């Protein structure tokens, strides 16, 4: 097995349509990008002497530091400004686009590569090219409500929307952050506006990297749609609900150029209870299950 193949993890994409809408309205789908990192290499026999930089890397160290600080604020005394900021932040996170949260979880360092690195030569490169040629990333979808071409088209449409959005969001918040410098003169309380702007820029950047990585894999034909019949229970047990939405243009055309069911309203094709089938089938942890329910709530609110 090539050294390249040992350095990437396994990846799986799950697509769960939440709301089905006739053209020209778009389908709203929840995506889960699951990456299992490769086994950690054995520690060196003679580890280097500790330096002033953290061994896990500056970015990893900073991320853990911020996460620990934020969790500590959630345990602050009742009525304190730290707890109030934490509660406000949690409410804001619930309103953050679920698509952004999903793309942020694509770790490009451990995900399958978009191409064979250019620095490989000789037999090592040939072995790496052979391994990369066989690479396939399954895109699991429920066959009762979707198809292979539709699953790929919806994923492609998602990336086409999110890449420019996160690119603009990254530079926008990056430019706004320096304007918060005057808040540094406030004693005791940290410069929360600056940290918020920096976090939004970082969040958009992470989502942008993830979206570009998935897009490159898609363009190279590495993402393969695979029907997953166990997901059908999500839809067979759900009562189809109609969502109040503006009536579509009756003169609108479908993607195929013919008149479709444009007079139909968008339909919610899942329920909170039926999504439990997907959670159990995917063996979701609490954080993942929370993301699914957040996507469900946001999908409904967008079409009301």
Percentage of residues in helical conformation: 40-55%
**Average pLDDT rating:** 79
Largest sheet: 6 strands, mixed
Q: pLDDT below 50 for ≥5 consecutive residues: which ranges? A: 240-248, 252-262
Strands, count: 6
Quick recap:
The protein has 10 helices and 6 strands, in the order H-E-E-H-H-H-H-E-H-H-E-H-E-E-H-H. It is α/β, with parallel strands linked by helices and 304 residues long.
Structure description:
The chain has 304 residues and is an alpha/beta fold. It has one domain. The chain has 10 helices and 6 strands. Strands 1, 2, 3, 4, 5 and 6 form a 6-stranded mixed β-sheet that branches. The chain is globular, with a radius of gyration of 22 Å. It has helices spanning 3-7, 58-73, 81-95, 98-104, 122-133, 148-176, 192-219, 232-236, 275-281, 286-302; strands spanning 10-20, 28-36, 137-141, 223-227, 241-242, 267-268. Strand 1 and strand 2 (28-36) form a beta hairpin.
